[in-house]
Amino acid sequence: MAHFNIPLLVKQGLRLLNFPDSLVAQVFKAKYFPENNFLDSCLGNSCSYVWRSIWATKDTLKKGLIWKVGTGMNISITEDAWIPNYVNVRLMSRFNNLQGDKVADLINSNEREWNRELIVNTFPEDVADLILQIPLLLERHEDFLAWNGESSGEFSVRSSYKLLQGLDPTAYALQNIYRDFYIKLWRIEMPTKIKIFIWKISWNYLTNRVNMIIRRLATSSLCPRCGGGDETMNHLFRECPTSMEVWRVLSVLDLTMITYVEFGEWLTMAEPFVLHFGPLGGKEILEFMTKQVDQVRRLQDLSIAILKNLMELEKKFKKTSTVKIKWSHPPGQGVKINFDGAFDERSKYSASGVVVRDCSGQVLISSIEIHRGVASTFAAEAIACRRATQIALDMNKEYTIILGDSLTVIKKCKNTVLDKSQIGSIIHDIHRMKLRGN
């Protein structure tokens, strides 16, 4: 539970970065980091409990953030995380043929393109390919931080939780052991309070004497029933003579005989068996299983009969219908622009196709461009959309309709919020073109 609370605090730390003008951010900045930002702040002396809690998540926040390249002036090549899909996130090594340590040194600022020759001759092949796949804006803009755990670039508690799992897998070993057990547990038809009780057992959340000693709620850790040892979960359910007698009476199999496994593994072995069969004997279990098999066979026969009837109906009433999709004319003297993108995963090449028609359907412009160093299918579609928008801007028609088959790209183009995804720079270019067109 403590590890689940950390992402909630990480979210508050990220708000200090994203909303520096908020009242809380201004108060914290004035008191704790007046000369820098939250990521570079120090804990300080006599700090509040709230600040101490948020500040403690700073390292986790750093591991989850990634820079989105704009000018590249604020991003360190070797110390900052800025290469998407790179295993180590940061390069953490020096390169002799670089004059500086800023990402801006890798960009031809006039052409707004990567310096391909410099990158290929400087970095390992896999790193160079990833760098060249990062899209750059046609116009300069400031670098900004995004959340690396989500494709949208926006923070989520779920992705932060997964990040913590990757950083400290041993802390979640117990959860992995119980994973299948939990799936079966929540599907069992039984009172919810019993399910919750079993879940508390698995996480050692019951108020046994040892847990009460840790919380300073008891003076002795001895078992109040037998007094023969500390009342741990293992003692309470396996070692205490009272519990052993209960298991002997209730179970088909004496579960206390299974002593060669740890308590967590024992729980996953014992609980499903007891919950399913309870005090049933072998004869009752056999009758139960036979009844279930007969029921399944009856359902199979019924399914076959229904399927045969459906096939007969399909042969009898089968009709073939063809839907003709017609191109619709733009209104008045406007134009309609259709775009599409194609992507080759192996070569990382993409093709952008754009067709412009007038109100009579006459083709005015047809354009095909090849792009290299494209990261994904979405990036290929976004590049094609940017090309279509550029053509619309150059034509300067009073009424223009732009159509494409990528719903994700279209939605991003309509949304005015800053896009922090991998194709965010391309979407930003499209927004700038739309503003100029208006």
From TrEMBL:
Sequence ranges assigned to domain RNase H type-1 in this UniProt record: 338-433
Highest taxon listed in the record's lineage: Eukaryota
SUPFAM superfamilies xref list: Ribonuclease H-like (SSF53098)
PANTHER family referenced in this protein's UniProt entry, alphabetically: BNAC02G40300D PROTEIN (PTHR47074), RNASE H TYPE-1 DOMAIN-CONTAINING PROTEIN (PTHR47074:SF61)
Record's protein name: Reverse transcriptase
Pfam families cross-referenced by the UniProt entry: RVT_3 (PF13456), zf-RVT (PF13966)
Ranges where the Reverse transcriptase zinc-binding domain occurs: 155-247
Coiled-coil region list: none
